[in-house]
Specification:
single chain, alpha/beta, Rossmann fold, 2 domains, seven-stranded parallel β-sheet, six-stranded parallel β-sheet, about 45% helix, about 15% strand, globular
Length: about 425
């Protein structure tokens, strides 16, 4: 069978699907991964078929409009910008999705692609599985949604998820129904998530049950399976995943550094982060490995204790670091814990604040919302997360995550869900 995987957004929205695609290919399935065009070299470097979806996610983030919104450090404004940016390219974007989905037998989608992909899947009569790398939005009585954790009792907890689903539907309703009608389908009168859930598709949350246990009151098609990570043997061979010789030498020249990076999340207030870096370098003896990701800095300090690079292979580099300071993306969080790093999460938007709260509640690190970030507070947090108590809890959590078989469990569920009677194309 040929499976199409559909994702749109940052590297954190693509990399877990690399692991899934490789696992499916190892089991004899044909796979195509469809993502923004700027991920072509990254995906194909793993030997995975790639289909470019219209648009360049990094260019969108670094556009004048994107930078302006990032500078506000306002989570609602950031989400609005993301949806508006996709709306501006909706016609060619929809065409690229349709062209790709027309070539596959089965579909794996996520929340960012759901409005378009679910419409095409229904039109073409193709079976679809849902996958997420964020805290669940499936209603449960056991605990509330992270952003609404002021109270904790049955009916209130369920209500928090319905509020979040309504909020999502508010953003995507008009264009979802517009496209449904364009393809000759009836417009939806109910929330898209509720509409799809009624059909009981396989719904995988690829996150650790050690951090968020699966609720006992979920229906059978909702499952928490564990984080997905790309096996080291594949990353070691990838041309874009090699550690520069200069960085390898720098790592051996002193104490373990602090890892600091926000990946393809992007930051807008460059002056703020440059000033924080200067404070760390002048007020302490700490060494800092700073990964700029999609952010375009122009005035970073020049200091022997600072190494600046765009990206690193986390699996290769994090074992050489002592603390992780990052935005709270689920994939980076999982890698930090697997390598026993206490962390400071600087959350920007979407699921990042929830992960920050979870990490702090479990004693694995500290959480600072980006609007509250300053040099003094960050330095204090870095010092606090290196206590013996936090290090001990991180070691225990790391051992649990290393023992989880997240990829194998997800692959098992997908193979059980998709029929096996179709021949590969």
């Amino acid at each position: 069978m040929k499976i199409g995987i559909y994702t749109y957004g940052t590297r954190g929205d693509v990399q877990p699907y690399i692991a899934l695609a490789l696992g499916l290919q190892d089991r004899g399935h044909k796979v195509v991964l469809a993502a923004p065009s700027d991920f072509k070299d990254f995906v194909e470097g793993f030997g995975i078929g790639f289909f470019p979806l219209h648009g360049n996610a990094e260019a969108i983030m670094n556009s004048p409009e994107g930078q302006s919104v990032l500078k506000t450090e306002n989570s609602i404004q950031l989400m609005k910008f993301f949806f508006q940016a996709l709306s501006a390219i909706k016609v060619p974007l929809r065409k690229s999705y349709f062209a790709s989905i027309s070539t596959v037998d089965y579909i794996i989608a996520n929340s960012a692609t759901l409005p378009i992909v679910s419409t095409i899947a229904e039109k073409q009569g193709k079976k679809m599985a849902l996958t997420y790398f964020m805290p669940p939005v499936v209603p449960t009585r056991e605990f509330p949604l992270g952003d609404f954790d002021f109270l904790n009792f049955g009916w209130y907890n369920q209500l928090t998820y319905k509020i979040a689903q309504s909020f999502y539907w508010k953003f995507v309703k008009a264009e979802t129904n517009e496209y449904r009608q364009e393809l000759g389908l009836e417009p939806l009168r109910k929330n898209l998530i509720q509409y799809l859930d009624h059909q009981k598709p396989l719904d995988l949350y690829c996150i650790s049950p050690a951090l968020i246990p699966q609720p006992k009151d979920w229906a059978h098609h909702h499952k928490i399976t564990g984080f997905l990570s790309v096996p080291a043997k594949y990353r070691e061979r990838h041309p874009l995943e090699q550690t520069p010789e200069e960085l390898s030498k720098w790592l051996t020249k002193g104490e373990k550094p602090i890892y600091l990076g926000f990946g393809s999340n992007g930051v807008g207030n460059h002056e703020k982060y440059s000033a924080i870096l200067r404070h760390l370098l002048t007020q302490t003896q700490e060494r800092v490995l700073f990964c700029t990701g999609w952010s375009q800095f122009k005035d970073l300090p020049d200091h022997p204790n600072l190494f600046v690079t765009k990206y690193v292979n986390h699996e290769a580099i994090l074992p050489h670091c002592k603390v992780g300071v990052f935005h709270g993306g689920a994939g980076t969080l999982a890698t930090m814990l697997r390598h026993n790093l206490p962390m400071v999460i600087i959350s920007f938007y979407t699921d990042q604040p929830t992960w920050g709260k979870i990490i702090e509640k479990k004693g694995l690190g500290l959480h600072i919302p980006v609007k509250k970030l300053d040099a003094k507070g960050l330095l204090e947090a870095i010092q606090k997360v290196q206590t013996d108590e936090i290090k001990s809890k991180v070691l225990a959590a790391g051992q649990l995550l290393r023992s989880e078989q997240g990829l194998e469990r997800a692959l098992f569920e997908l193979e059980q869900y998709f029929p096996h009677d179709q021949e590969d194309n």
